[in-house]
Design goal:
About 35% of the residues lie in helices and about 20% in strands. By secondary structure, the protein is an alpha/beta fold. It starts with 6 loop residues before the first strand and ends in an 11-residue tail after the last helix.
């Protein structure tokens, strides 16, 4: 299966003296790649900022050239990592489960099972943003035929948010695009609503509220109950103060994200990648505030993907028991 890369981000981290660094750290680098790429998502979204950040942290720490690549998001990342077009990627549990079952829209009938989990990232809340001038303050007030941006085609937001809103009785025109582009369209009056599924704070929303007044719309109690019953999501609270425009806690739903790796990568390489991310929480928090959930204890939220042996080794060395049936 041939998949076209969308683009590679500029400024890959410069390689350090690999041999000297490896000797100093006592690492076995047999079979390591000369460079690596992390599949992220569109610019303006959390995946891009978070993924490019941890890629650069790993590159700097291990002395190997690496960086993030713009992609269509979790669904495409599963396919790219499966085929080895990128070494690493990031995905949410819903698209991951569909891909493993052969239900990916990018490869119908083909189980994308050459992918392994390596560390927990954060929860992706599903949240809605409108301009305050629209007068829309709740999901029930979204008018029939509203033009709603759902993010890149095939992304977690595009896969699940339309279904959620249809379940809640919302009639809409579906639009796709990168988060920055959709934010510009909302500001220009070309969209009525953006339905985001991304780690918070979402860069595109933070940028929007600097330029104009926005409403962060949450789920009413009965809407929340309906969506929790119908979809593989969990209750989530967007804390007041997450955005300048949010002066109260907002109720949302969320889905867990995990970093993934091609199953054929060397165990020693993946071990060092996991070690770098899991043991540098302060640096991860500098990359993105969503990293507050990037802690080893959250490994338990993966009930879908098998773990890469390099990740299994790091977690079990640090007192976390990976279930036997999920060891890859």
């Amino acid at each position: 299966m041939k998949l076209t890369r969308i683009m590679k981000t500029a400024g890959l981290a410069a390689a350090m003296a690999v041999a000297g660094n490896a000797a100093a750290l006592g690492q076995d680098r047999a079979g390591w790649p000369d460079s690596f790429t992390v599949g992220t998502a569109s610019q303006g979204g959390t995946y891009f900022a978070y993924g490019s950040g941890w890629a650069n942290l790993v590159a700097e720490t291990l002395g190997i050239s690496g960086g993030g690549e713009v992609t269509g998001g979790p669904t495409q990342n599963m396919a790219l990592v499966h085929t080895g077009d990128v070494a690493f990627g990031m995905t949410t549990m819903g698209p991951a489960a569909e891909a493993l079952e052969g239900n990916s829209p990018l490869a119908p009938g083909v189980p994308l099972d050459n992918v392994r989990a390596i560390f927990p990232m954060y929860q992706t809340p599903f949240s809605i943003t409108t301009l305050s001038s629209s007068g829309i303050t709740s999901i029930s007030e979204i008018p029939a035929g509203a033009r709603i941006g759902f993010g890149p085609a095939g992304s977690t937001s595009d896969t699940y948010f339309p279904r959620m809103l249809e379940t809640l009785g919302v009639e809409f025109e579906r639009r796709n695009g990168g988060w920055n582009d959709l934010g510009g369209q909302l500001q220009d009056g070309l969209l009525d609503v953006i339905a985001f599924a991304a780690g918070i704070p979402i860069p595109a929303v933070s940028q929007l509220e600097v330029q104009t007044d926005v409403n962060i719309i949450d789920f009413a109690p009965e809407e929340l109950a309906t969506v929790l019953d119908a979809f593989p999501v969990s209750d989530f609270t967007i804390d007041s103060g997450t955005y300048q425009s949010l002066d109260r806690d907002a109720q949302a739903v969320s889905m867990w994200n995990f970093a993934v790796a091609n199953a054929d990568l060397p165990e020693s390489f993946v071990y060092e990648v996991v070690k770098t991310v899991m043991e540098n929480h302060d640096r991860m928090m500098e990359i993105h505030k969503a990293s507050r959930s990037t802690i080893p204890e959250n490994f338990e939220h993966n009930q879908v993907l098998k773990w890469h042996p390099g990740a299994v080794r790091w977690f079990e060395e640090n007192g976390f028991d990976i279930p036997d049936d999920l060891e890859g």
